[in-house]
Design brief:
This protein is of the alpha+beta class and 302 residues long. The protein has six helices and 15 strands. The protein has three domains: 2-60, RNA-binding S4 domain (Structural Genomics Hypothetical 15.5 Kd Protein In mrcA-pckA Intergenic Region, Chain A), CATH 3.10.290; 70-159 and 272-282, 2-Layer Sandwich (Pseudouridine synthase); 163-263 and 294-298, Pseudouridine synthase (2-Layer Sandwich). The strands form two sheets. Strands 5, 6, 7, 8, 9, 10, 11, 12, 13, 14 and 15 form an eleven-stranded mixed β-sheet that branches. Strands 1-4-2-3 form a four-stranded antiparallel β-sheet. The longest helix has 12 residues, at 145-156.
């Protein structure tokens, strides 16, 4: 076991593992995390870029079992499939696509396996968009090149309907967050910049649905789909998502415990790429999300 020192404040988990295990490659370090071999403060983590704080306890257990999501998809996971596309309910704790060439058990792999089991093709799926590993919710893959092109265009021109639910610390303002996001804002993390020629524009519309004890249930509608967009906008507004462990460096309020980042892709809508028929899908939050929500509702005395 290793206790993070003050000199290691803010270090990424994969970088720390390389320091502790000389000779390991970046892929080796990340594989240890994504395969469930690493715990922080007694809790298994699956995100290699988790930022650490002094005093955190990091432990590697080579005998730890792989995450249970690496087997097969639940029978209800595929909500729609045709010759052009497949819409899937993504569970939390599984990558949409491989982080690197060593990662297995990712969503695209499991969907291909499930489609083949239904008598479908084992052809690679076209990646149109992604959800973070800890995020649950609806995701669409393309099954043909023409469908991939059409769906990518729809995402590029913001004609896809995407509605997320999130449990956040405090009560954020109901507003549209608009900024330019860059990969490194100066501290190694993604974030917003005031430089008008750097980064890519990101727009998130936030609405408060319910006030909880020390937190709020909010909906987030996306115009753009930048990496960690919702997490960054809410954190920069002073209301990080409950369970957030990356974009909380400057948050000084009390932390609400959660098993993961409480973010769920609840609705997905688009025009079918072959016939332009409106497609709309909804998914209720999973049990872990609901348990945190009910706990915070109970704390208000309702």
């Amino acid at each position: 076991m290793h206790v993070v020192t003050s000199e290691q404040d803010g270090i990424a988990l994969d970088r720390l593992l390389r320091e502790l295990m000389p000779g390991r490659s970046w892929n080796d370090a990340r594989k240890l995390v994504t395969s469930g071999k690493v715990s922080v403060d007694g809790r298994r983590v699956l995100e290699p870029t988790l930022r650490l704080k002094p005093g955190m306890r990091v432990e590697v257990s080579m005998n730890a079992p792989r995450p249970r999501t690496e087997g097969a998809l639940d029978g209800s996971a595929i909500v729609h499939a045709d010759s052009q596309l497949v819409v899937v309910r993504k569970p939390a704790g599984i990558s949409s696509v491989p982080y690197d060439e060593l990662e297995s058990g990712t969503l695209d792999e499991l969907v291909r396996r499930a489609l083949k089991g239904r008598g479908g093709s084992d052809a690679p799926l076209g990646v149109v968009h992604r959800l973070d590993k800890e995020t649950s919710g609806l995701l669409v893959f393309a099954r043909t090149l023409s469908a991939k092109r059409a769906l990518k265009q729809a995402f590029r021109f913001h004609t896809v309907h995407r509605r997320y639910l999130a449990i956040v610390h405090g009560t954020p303002p109901e507003r549209s967050f608009k900024s330019r996001l860059i990969k490194d804002r100066g501290d190694g993390l993604r974030g917003s910049t005031d430089h008008t020629e750097l980064g890519r524009e990101a727009v998130t519309h936030v609405k408060v649905l319910e006030r909880l004890q020390g937190a709020s249930l909010v909906e987030c509608r996306l115009e753009t789909g930048r990496t960690h967009q919702i997490r960054i906008h809410l954190a920069e507004a002073g209301h990080p998502i409950v369970g957030e462990h990356v974009y909380v460096r400057h948050y000084r309020g009390p932390r609400i415990e959660a098993p993961r980042v409480m973010l769920h892709a609840a609705e997905l809508g688009f025009l079918h790429p072959s016939n332009e028929r409106p497609m709309h899908f909804r998914m209720d939050p999973p049990d872990d999300f609901e348990r945190v929500l009910e706990k915070l509702r109970g704390a208000t005395g309702r």
